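Quick review question:
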């Protein structure tokens, strides 16, 4: 099939465009990537708009498909997190294919998805197999820094493009995890909320040889330790109850909050991610204080990466304030709400059927993701988005560990599988 023959090449080509996003105002490579993607669509007669909410932070917007029913949004992002080449076995922006595996930053997050979608759209357009339903294709900038210069700008300034859209598919989901001898395909139906917080302790600077009972470094360190060591209780959301019930049924036990952590271990390496969605989490990530060993500074700061379950925002922030304690100010760097959608309806059925059509006997179930995607921004427009980047993976591949990790890579067979699934999917929607 033309789709399968092209998807690997497209993935490699996109990896070779360095779209590293370090969170600064610059988006090196995003404009180049946007022009590349727009050109791929233009080659098959699909008009694409490149729109910049900020200079250089380029997004691609296109319309495809028919006119029956409401539009479906298919969204991916163009940027990737940075990579330190010295840490990798192969150059992170080489896009090399070695022993049936595509290597490079973005191979799983998320130029694989972009390649699968583009390859499928291009092949179907050439063959005259256009879906009956209108498809809005959107490739965004800045997702890896929270989407404030990408999807958020589109929501503010390009609302007309999303008129009539209530549903979407994007990352992170659709990949397989082997539980004992059976593949489970995890569909993202929910995301934890994000609370990036700055802690600040202010005081009086002075000589390090003197008494400083209100040392700001000590005060800040205490707050950071309390927050980092806090044991958040296990609380199962509706989505995780569905997933754990499916796993429990397969392994022969009833799923409960008491055995949730034990059931999560059935997912092997993916337990690293799935274990994080059984509770709220707080991880200290940065500390800054002082400028000389014999000077007590007048200010000390730290940062916390907090993630909260759907419906937990207020109680989570209240607990953080309590843990920080007196004399430590807590400020928001970026706070985005959690979201949760029921995995049901025609779109869910199409996702399930397209996966099972290529892998009969597998299990398709929703899950809650520990990170965040542009789905949070689409939710402001009333759009329900599922993470659906279909990949059938080898059971021994630590796939979730590759997200933002060293030696990011994706098997060729997995990309080809995903292209076939998307081909089925566009017939079913």
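Suggested answer, residue by residue:
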């Amino acid at each position: 099939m033309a789709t399968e023959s092209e998807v690997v090449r497209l993935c490699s080509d996109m990896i070779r465009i360095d779209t590293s996003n370090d969170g600064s105002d610059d988006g090196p490579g995003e404009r180049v990537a946007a022009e590349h993607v727009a050109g791929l669509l233009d080659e098959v007669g699909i008009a694409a708009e490149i729109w910049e909410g900020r200079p250089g932070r380029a997004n691609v917007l296109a319309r495809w498909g028919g006119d029956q029913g409401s539009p479906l949004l298919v969204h991916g992002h163009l940027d990737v997190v940075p990579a330190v080449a010295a840490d990798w076995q192969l150059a992170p922006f080489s896009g090399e294919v070695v022993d049936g595996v595509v290597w490079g930053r973005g191979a799983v997050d998320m130029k694989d998805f972009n390649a699968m979608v583009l390859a499928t759209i291009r092949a179907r357009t050439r063959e005259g197999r256009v879906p009956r339903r209108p498809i809005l294709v959107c490739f965004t900038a800045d997702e890896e820094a929270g989407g404030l210069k990408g999807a958020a700008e589109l929501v503010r300034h390009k609302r007309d493009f999303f008129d009539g859209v209530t549903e979407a598919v994007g990352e992170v989901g659709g990949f397989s995890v082997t539980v004992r001898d059976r593949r489970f395909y995890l569909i993202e139906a929910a995301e934890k909320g994000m609370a990036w917080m700055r802690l600040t302790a202010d005081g009086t600077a002075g000589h390090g040889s003197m008494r400083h009972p209100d040392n700001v470094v000590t005060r800040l360190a205490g707050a950071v330790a309390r927050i980092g060591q806090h044991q958040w209780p296990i609380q199962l959301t509706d989505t995780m109850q569905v997933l754990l019930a499916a796993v429990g049924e397969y392994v022969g036990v009833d799923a409960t909050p008491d055995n949730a952590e034990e059931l999560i271990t059935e997912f092997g390496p993916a337990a690293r991610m799935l274990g994080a969605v059984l509770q709220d989490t707080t991880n200290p990530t940065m500390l800054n204080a002082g400028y000389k060993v014999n000077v007590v500074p007048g200010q000390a700061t730290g940062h916390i990466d907090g993630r909260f379950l759907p419906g937990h925002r207020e109680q989570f922030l209240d607990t953080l304030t309590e843990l920080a304690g007196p004399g430590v100010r807590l400020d928001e760097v970026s706070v985005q709400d959690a979201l949760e959608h029921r995995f049901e309806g025609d779109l869910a059925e199409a996702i399930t059927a397209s996966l099972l059509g290529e892998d009969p006997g597998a299990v398709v179930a929703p899950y809650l993701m520990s990170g965040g995607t542009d789905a949070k921004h689409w939710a402001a427009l009333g759009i329900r988005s599922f993470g659906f980047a279909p990949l059938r993976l080898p059971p021994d591949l630590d796939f979730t560990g590759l997200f933002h990790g060293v030696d990011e890579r994706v098997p060729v067979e997995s990309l080809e599988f995903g292209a076939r699934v998307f081909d089925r999917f566009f017939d079913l929607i």
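Why it works: The chain has a mean pLDDT of 95. The radius of gyration is 23 Å.
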